[in-house]
Amino acid sequence: MSAFRLSKLFSGRPAPAPTVVANDAGEAALRQSAAALEVLLTESARRLPDPPAPPVEAVEEDVEAGRPVRVLLAEDHPVNRKVVELILASIGAEITCVETGARAVDAFRRQAFDVVLMDLQMPVMDGLTATREIRGIEASAGRARTPILSLTANAMPEHVDASFAAGADDHLTKPVNAPGLIAAVETAMVARRAETPLRRSA
Q1: Largest CA distance in the chain
Q2: How many CB atoms lie within 10 A of CB 24?
Q3: What percent of the chain has pLDDT over 90?
Q4: Which of 26, 87, 163, 195 is the most buried (most CB within 10 A)?
Q5: Alpha carbon of 178 to those of 75, 108, 127, 128, 182: distances in Å?
Q6: Tens digit of pLDDT for each residue in 119-149?
Q7: Domains of the chain, with CATH numbers?
Q8: SS3 90
Q9: Could you tell me where the beta strands, DSSP code E, fall in the chain?
Q10: CA atoms of 107 and 70, how far apart (whole Å)
Q11: Whether 191 contacts 197, CB under 8 Å
């Protein structure tokens, strides 16, 4: 499925500015990298209040109704974070960004998301621990399983195994590219709607 078709499936309206829930120390430097990126960063710099958490059971109905897919992005590196934001903005995703695993867990506890993109190496709480915490929240609250896609430069088999053992549904190797990330999000959303687990990556 093309990015255009996926955008129509999830949204049907212009991409909203990402919600930034963390300080971005490298933002000033990134604004100078390219004029197009500068426009996005200017919009992203606005500190917006967290939207009220919708009823978890209503998430799937909202997606089918045409609202943007809600993505929780946990990534401490500002450049990597902006790359993912740019890619997902092209399909109309609504992105909440955090810089630590602890903040990812807190955001997930307060708000429903359709997909979680989890960096594995972050300060305060790493991505593996955060993934386990999120699965614990789902189990204790009776919430449906939310696809968690690990983002990491570590592609060794033991790293992949650790990712899945923690509760991740897929393991994406950085640097991510637009077709691969969009396809992974599409696959996660299809699996979520069908209430079936994602296939483990080879």
Answers
A1: 46
A2: 17
A3: 51
A4: 163
A5: 17, 25, 22, 24, 6
A6: 999 999 999 999 999 999 999 999 999 999 9
A7: 3-194 (3.40.50.2300)
A8: coil
A9: 19-20, 70-74, 94-98, 115-119, 148-152, 170-173
A10: 12
A11: yes
Tokens of 102: 């602890």
Return d(Cα 7, Cα 114) in angstroms, integer.
15
**Residue 97 burial (C-beta neighbours within 10 Å; 0-12, 13-18, 19+):** buried
Q: Note whether 84 and 117 are within 8 A (CB).
A: yes
Locate tokens 């709607």: which residue? Answer: 193
Sheet of 94-98, strand order? 19-20, 94-98, 70-74, 115-119, 148-152, 170-173
51 within 8 A of 111, measured Cβ to Cβ? yes
The amino acid at 83: V
- 169-174's contacts with Cβ under 8 Å and 24+ in sequence apart are 169/197, 169/198, 170/198, 170/200, 170/201, 171/201, 172/117, 174/80
- Report the C-alpha gap between 136 and 81 in whole angstroms: 26
Pair of tokens at residue 93: 């995703």
